[in-house]
Specification:
Number of helices: 2
Order of helices and strands: EHEHEE
Number of domains: 1
Strand order of the largest sheet: 1-2-4-3
CATH topology: Translation Initiation Factor IF3
CATH class: Alpha Beta
Distance between the termini: 22 Å
Helix content: 25-40%
Structural class: alpha+beta
Strand content: 25-35%
Shape: globular
Number of strands: 4
CATH superfamily: TusA-like domain
Radius of gyration: 11 Å
Length: 74
């Protein structure tokens, strides 16, 4: 897994609330690499789509750990 600066366990936060909170967090830390753990069943499709729409880089996905490595845009 890729090294990260910040880890956030979103637990089972629903994807609507998940991406809103993720947006707030990445805006506060531009350029940082986040490891986000998301248990919501929609996360595997929603998080990559959100990254594509917002310009943040999805660097890796660990499906077993339900973790997403995201580099916040600068």
């Amino acid at each position: 897994m890729i090294d990260h600066d910040i880890e956030w366990n979103a637990g089972d936060l629903a994807c609507g609330d998940l991406v809103l909170e993720l947006r707030r967090r990445v805006r506060a830390e531009p350029g940082k690499v986040f490891r986000v753990i998301a248990l919501d069943p929609g996360a595997p499709s929603d998080i990559p789509a959100w990254c594509t729409m917002t310009g943040h880089a999805l660097l890796a996905v660990d499906a077993d750990a339900r973790a997403y490595i995201i580099r916040a845009k600068t």
